[in-house]
Amino acid sequence: MSAVSPSPSILLTSTKPSNETHKTIIIPFIKKPTIPTIQCEFRSFENNSSSYQNLIADSSNRIHIIFKPPSSSPLTTASSMDLSIKHSKRVCLFYCSEMKDLAERIASASDSIELRGITWRTFEDGFPNLFISNAHGIRGQRVAFLASFSSPGVIFEQLSIIYALPKLFVSSFTLVLPFFPTGTFERMEEEGDVATAFTLARILSNIPISRGGPTSLVIFDIHALQERFYFGDNILPCFESGIPLLLNRLQKLPDSDNIAIAFPDDGAWKRFHKQLQHFPTIVCIKVREGDQRIVRLKEGDPKGRHVVIVDDLVQSGGTLLECQKVLANHGATKISAYVTHGIFPNSTWERFKHDAGGNPENGMTYFWITDSCPRTVKQVENKSPFEILSLAAPIAAALQV
To answer: Biological process (GO) annotations (predicted)?
Structure first.
């Protein structure tokens, strides 16, 4: 080591054979009243590890090195972040026309999701004329399709795409079908009934296998959990729930400490009570009186509470309205509702009025639905008491599984 004139720092570089580590020492001067102390950093470019030492120069110009344990450095943190980014799974997301808005929200929720296009056309005879853009570009990619089986008329064209995508040499294929439409037709009550839930499950179970294996199927709050057994071995159903979205919304209410959860029947209680067990629970029951089915209070006390009725879906809304009346008659001060799937055929959503306060028997404070049924979303958007809780973030997370 040669003598140097005083300067803000000293740069020492030792050159060794190429098969050994190259080390650079940067030594800034730190003035002290007595013995001068110099701090330097040794970096090994082989493994990016770092260690820090104190160098103390005594009066005889000898340097004593005092070793300290290695500590975390910004380089280590940066490396971890780079590793996390590398492990993020890139997904090419295709979608049907109805689901365009939700697909864009999903892409906005995750930088790992890239939207891809499909040309939806028809021939003169009405049958679909479809084209998958840049089919060569998705080879070896993780691919997903966002579907909406809102009516029988749109199912065939979407199935044509669903059956084609796995055969384009993609590394894996995921079908996102937020609402499983035939879920309420899952059982037979007499000979001759057709369980169309089983029929649709069999159709989806025959989606071609991609290079990565069977198709993954994402469904939110399927009507009956036993329907998972309707699917064959060539598809992997993943059942998600919209209840976490409801929980997050309830936490933001000004009266969040006065919420009670009501289930319109035993089926809804069995379906959701474990996810909502930390709330006071109210259960209603349907009883038959002559030719009518009447909703009555089975257990729980709604008096003085903001009661939220929870179910998986709503069609005509008759059961929810009857449940609302019962809860109001038993002293509920506010009544709201949540369903994952707002079907509302023939605009039956118009039956639900808004209660701005003090009139729970005739209106609801809030009615929350998700965007699993895009046609309904367009009808009720910005109309009280309806609020939309988007499935975009849960779907984006499911595509990373």
So the answer is: 5-phosphoribose 1-diphosphate biosynthetic process; purine nucleotide biosynthetic process
